[in-house]
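#lab-general

N.A. 3:47 PM
ok so I finally got the sequence cleaned up, no stray characters, all 835 residues accounted for. can someone with queue access submit it? mine expired

B.Y. 3:52 PM
send it over

N.A. 3:53 PM
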Amino acid sequence: DNLKGVTGIERVTSVSRENSCSITVTVLVDYDINIVIQDVKDAVNQISTFPTGMERITIFRQEARNFAIDFVLAGNVKLLDLKKEARRVERKLLAHDGISKVSLSGFPAEEIEIGVRENDMRAYELTFDEIKNAVKRGNVKITGGKIKGKKEEFLIRANEKGYHASEIKNLVVRSTKDGTIIRLKDVADVIDRWSENPNRVYQNGKPAVLITVQNTNQEDLFYVVRTVKSFIASFNKTHDNIKAYVVRDGSEIIQERVDLLSRNMLIGIVLVIFILSLSLNPRLSFWVALGIPVAFAGMLMIGPFYGLTINVMSLMAMILVLGILVDDGIVIAENIYQHHERGEKPVNAAFKGTVEVLPSVVASVLTTIVIFTTFFFLKGGLGDRAKDLAFVVVAALLVSLVEAAFVLPAHIAHSRALSERDKTTIEKWVESWMHFARDKIYSPALKYTLKHPYITLAVPIAALLITMGALKGGILKTTFFPYIESRNVNVTLELPAGTPVSVTDSLLAQMEPKIWTLNNIYRKETGDNVDVILSQSRRIGPETHQGHLSVTLAASGKRKWSAMETGNRIRKVVGRIDRAEKLEFGGRGHWGKPVSIAIASNDLEQLRKATEELKVELNDLEVLKDVVDNDPPGLREVTISLKQKAFALGLTTSQVIDQVRSGFFGGEAQRILRGIDEVKIWVRYREDNRTTLEDLDQMHIRLPGGKEYPLGEIANFTIKHGIMAVNHINAQRVVKVEADISNPKESVPAILGQIKKEILPEIQHHYPDIQFLFEGQSRENAKTMKSIGDIVPVMLLLMFLIIVITFRSFLQAILVFILIPFSFIGVLWGHFIQG
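B.Y. 4:20 PM
back already:
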């Protein structure tokens, strides 16, 4: 609530869980994020009602980091040994210049547990607070000043700090009047252990630790990946029990596009030289083709001033603009050649030929630049990533224009490009064929269209109407964001809250041999020995009932099946898991799920009923799969309510629950640093004293005077399901229902249109206090389309003015603009042909 009215905030989303909460503040594009962060901090600091003893609130800017590579250290060794080895690997990788972010996962936090024995604690009449205070007082490392002698100074220090269980188990808790000393080990089992939050990784069935390497925009992705892979190779040569395996390589998709760009550039240069050689001459075509690498080189030279990095979008832009770069050069070179054929000298031909067509060339390039400038102003998921695309296209076209207007004519005029020579037989044949095409095919067709203007107008208009009809009728399907092929299939499993980690792990482990069986089926179907499924990585957490399985596939060029098709086949071989609250096969896209609907209401009963009804309706749609929500039933809760006897004894609910929490959740006595790991020292019942309801019932509650009563005598217990997580958007309670599409070629807008028209109104009628918010891809697309609606009219007006100035005629400019809608005939049917 305190964030309401803070300037620059687009939306606030939050997720509240047991003992924790995270709030995400999305900042509007035009605002300084540092100023907004400070305003948010000021708003949070004004809150005075936070619980006593709460952890310090952390407010930070989410730094943009790019994924580089995931790899694991796996082996049949102890988890602690894996972690120690992973820490050594982390230090070695961070020692390389250009690698600044390495994170480890696959193991819980380390802690020291002082597992109090109930009977011993009662025998010595101790309390949890007394034990905690003993640790705080005794486990210290502190200075006591200096002795300043005439000849030497001495530092006074007490160093009784212990960093492992064996070093603190002898701490004194209390000494009695008869001289008896009660130590920690007398009342508790002091052990080093992993925390109870599950976080485990297995690679092909072996225990593993996952190492994730990221890079900032200032770091070279390829250097990072090469360095890591080189390290992995040397690591595997020197280690027998522990091996390193690459799980996911973020540079592969970039490398694929670099290779594609290199091939296309080479093909483009060869085609330009070849085609122009046939129609003009080889020397002239060489200078025109040289404009491609020159344009890219110029763009890359000014790129650092903009902050450009080589990424998927910038590489896609290079591939996109490749075919446009030589257009201006071809027009200018061809006109220079025409002037030279009329008998003009090379320099005069270059000058007149360039000046004659330069206005049209400039207008053509500027209109293209103007329309691509639109991407600088787009919002939403696509808009955030499209700015690099816009810069690459605009910068490359500007450099290409300068090169074509100044450098190309000079090269042509002062080289042998226009020197006289006899045409080859092939050139003569091509020239005769082009004359034939011009005189016998194009000229008659042009004359016919000029004589029959109504037919000329009717045919393209009919084609446009047919295209629009095909689009509306679903023959030409649309989607918000295209399916992007991946090398990983992710399986997500969620069981009812409270399910033991052993059950979750066993169900995921049972999937692995079934998936390997699918790999054997693939090998039989292809008839070769090439594996489609390369590895499987199993992960448990963050809660005991949650787990993930990541299946790594061969490169897309080495398999016939897409990742989505493989995910669907994995679904079939795994089968149904009856206890699963959520079972997904696939992965989340960059902009969320195709179908993502948030149901908002402050009436929790209507909210839950509407959620269940919507899930039933979505499950009935064959085009959707993996229908889930983010409001699963929580753990079963034991609610404690005091009996009259407790009140008669002078107890309060707070006093009782504080003692229960100390025993079953634990009290944090201290935090110590063990290497770079922060280790908490917990005081609570040992694990076998807090595993059943009977343990809770028989727990003794101590009164201020020293008397004790079993909890069951002074309190009643009721058991019911609690809440797993509470989600809010802009301070309103929401439940999000999401689904994926069964086939990547399905039309997502059509599916959402059907949901809006046929499903949501009926649910809204049943539950009038709810409202629907479209999230995920739909929300990002809506933001993008709104920004397009705002900026495209301005850009079209600029294009119109450029054409008017070039033609010096409003009518001709209007005629040119009338042609724009007809271009969609080719665009849409081209998409249809490509699938």
